[in-house]
Amino acid sequence: MPLGNSGIGPGLDGSDPARQLQEYVRRGASFSGSESHVIFNNEEGSFKNVSSITGLDSKDDGRSVCLTDWDLDGDLDIWISNRSGPQIRFFQNSNPSSGQGINIHLSGKSCNRDAIGARVILKARDNLPQTRTVTAGSGFLAQSSKTLHFGLAKEDVIEEIEIFWPGNEAQIISNVVPGNYYIEQGSEPIDLKVRSKEIVKDPSPFKETFKDRTFLSQRLPLTALFERPPEAKEKPLLICLTVEDCKVCAAQKQEWKLSPPKNVHLQLISESNLALSDPEKLRLIQLTYDHFFDISERKIPTPISFLIDQKNRLCAIYRGHIDQNVLLEDCVNIHIEGTQLRSRSVPFSGLWASKQISSARPLNFVEDLLDAGLLDSAANYINKEVNSLKKDELFPMLLKRLEALKSDRSVP
Amino acid sequence: MFLQSSVMLLVALFFFSACNKKQGKDFDSHELKETTLQSEQPTIKESEQLAAQIESELILFAQQIISGALPDSFSDNEKWSLFSNRFINSSEQSRNIKASVFEMWHEKNTIQTVARIEMKARLNNQNYFGLITQFKSSWSKNETGQLKALKIGDPEQTVLNESPALWFNDETDRLTAKEPAFTEHLSMGLDFWLKRIESIHGIDAFINNGMALGDFDGDGRDDIYVCQPGGLPNRLFLHQADNTIKEAPKRTGANYLDHTSSALFIDIDNDGDQDLTLATPSGIVLLENDKHLSFIERGILQTDEVDCHSLSATDFDMDGNLDLLITFALGSRSLDDDSSFRFDDARDGGSNQLFRGDGKWSFSEVTALTGLSEGNDRHSLAASWHDYDLDGDPDLYIANDYGQNQMYRNDVREGSRFFSEIANEIGIEDRGAGMSVSWADYNRDGLPDLYVGNMYSNAGKRITGLSGFLPKNKDLTKHYRRFAKGNTLFKQQKNGRYIDSGPATTMGRWAWSSVFADLNNDGWEDLIVANGYISGPRTDDL
Lengths: 412, 542
What we know:
The complex is a heterodimer of chains A (412) and B (542). Helices cover 24% and strands 26% of the residues of chain A. Chain A is built from ten helices and 19 strands. In chain A, a hairpin with a 5-residue loop joins β7 (119-124) and β8. The radius of gyration of chain A is 30 Å and the shape is elongated. Chain A starts with 16 loop residues before the first helix and ends with a helix. Chain B has 542 residues and is α+β, with helices and mostly antiparallel strands. In chain B, strands 1, 2, 3, 4 and 5 form a five-stranded antiparallel sheet that branches. In chain B, strands 7-8-9-10 form a four-stranded antiparallel sheet, with no helix packed on it. A four-stranded antiparallel sheet of chain B has the order 11-12-13-14, with no helix packed on it. In chain B, a hairpin with a 5-residue loop joins β25 (488-492) and β26. The longest helix of chain B is centred in the N-terminal third of the chain and has 23 residues, at 44-66. The model of chain B is unreliable at 1-10 and 12-39 (pLDDT under 50). At the A-B interface, α1, β1, β2, β3 and β4 of A face α1, β3, β5, β6 and α6 of B. β9 (142-143) of chain A pairs parallel with β7 (211-214) of chain B, so a sheet runs across the interface.
């Protein structure tokens, strides 16, 4: 199944609850949002909600929780990944009543080297045993440290530590005091810090800054929306929507007045004028903007600019002020394809495991128009772009849906 | 349709409101003439608006308590006055209040509720103080729609906490401030990127991405790998000597742009360094650590489905080579026909897959061979391996959205490893919206216990408690109520069966990762529950 909105085909109407939900969230609604994290303190086997004194008050829609004694000071610290920014948070343990702790990192010899599955029992004098197991993957989408941590009540004196290596004889270790240890199967513990060594860090770490524009990986035919003026000749079109009372818009216009953008034919559109003269077109611009993304903005951000190539296909969307150099570069690259296009279409560089992305479907754009009730615009779009649309196997279904909606509308 | 996991409740809400319309006859015709009350049965929407109104009223009430301005009618009430006194001279800025109505029903012309208020503040003695209390209240609404509190009952089940210091400090800024991968990328949330990256790259509003810790550079300190949705690079941060983080150099080859649900640092080739595996829609990416701060891609294990979630490693056959399990939520067969989708027992999920490690970077797909194909059609969000019966080999628990969970016992049958599904047999099927799995011996009796993360929803509890809710199907109602109940702590008994250890740890809220950890070094493993589903820019929340 394709990821993202390309999976929504024709035939689903608004009554489907899952679709309604999706639309609801896509329009920016919250759903069990802004909840704080919860901590239950284990008081000798029974639990008490202590969230109010834990300081885990961030409300970023937490997902994974990874535990580790990050600073090796004897207590567990927390990394949490989030849906909202910042996408990772670090909480350092500062528990005032902390006893001591012991960290044990195991290394297998006749079992797997990570000792995943090894169970360790710590016995302290006059106290119940504690058990930990080396695990890779637990909680939700998370891997905590493979170094095992045991908390020790203040009066605890460790009698022995028993290690059940997976598929092997157990090993007993005595005479241990709180600290950080590395234990190789069959050997005595050594100080974990002994293995610490300074790594020569990269002298020139890679640094990329984010530019607020989307160079599209899927070019959308837009003849139906923007006519190519004859004076544009062989240049790409840059259509910029501005509003009054917007500093960035004013600055951008001023900048272009002094030095018009090279290599493109610029068209400035005032939102307020368009709202009066052709409100449906304004709506279409909003829908075009929202089409590519899984979440829609309630109001189109301004200034917003569309770069349209010589074949009248939308190639890039710019939010806010446009960096001249970025625009110049985009124009040079306006016809790139394949992997080059793919890497240009994401904000940061990286590697892909998948060989390619699924192909763009202009048909989905028509679906968006139908969802918005813009039947005439949809019919017009189909008319203008029929050649590219009819390649899609779902095209007959799309036509059926359009006809059905039209006849619905004609019923009083 | 691409509907990511755990949107069950809201889907259910819409589903029910649709039911209300469709089943209007159930609601209206039968008892309509006998009593006017039935006809006044509010719709879910009206009822939810009422709950929101009551919550606002309770917040006002809580503000009076926390500021010491208890209403006259409560001045003789020992319990509420006692609470109010605790907050005397607390710092005003530090005061924080939350009110939630989680049960609501209509009785004669009144509205009855059970609600919880949570209050916290920094006290005069500089201690941090918080209280959570639960109480009944009754309300009436006059003709103009004005709400009036008839009675606010005494506090029940109160939890008080006071501490000279908070248990944790948020040190994110200190650790990440100089790191461009953080400031330019991770400091922004998913909603920011959703508006900037085409969904076709594999990024959507419901996507979830995990995180892994492991010592990649072999300096004895855990490093951190952050998974990202499609179109954004995963980030590997190296743990510096001063405990800050710095992104690994680009040549390391860790910045995959595919949607990565989860990752694991494990030593696949048993050569003493941490390799990396990634769960992506294209399969499980295997990356070998070359000991010189770089990864070499050693292939991709092709999977049958694309909606990948949890990745976990074990050595189930004890041959010394690590094996990999990947879970899937949606299946490619799913949602062809929405009407047949069962929120309480969905069987159209993606099949999870087990890959046996055979050494030298070779893996065999052994899902069917090992019996894991039994019941392998659920929406599996999380899985964790643990030797629950202490027989020396790892068993597997899988948490499923929209239905019951699974426990696979690792057996030897005719000389080969075979998994038997025993969740019902030992009492841990935990039918609900399962999202996370954590094992520990929390009561220190030597027997492994289990904590399962599920959705807790005040709205869900309120709605499923309404008398008009699915009136014809009491069994189904019970299941739906279960869905909003929250987390479950299962205690293992001596006979190997588990019992639900009660309500003390259920209210984890939305509850994604719900895990055991001894956070205060007293030798007893506590529970931490990460929360919040989607905080959109709009304020109206269901």
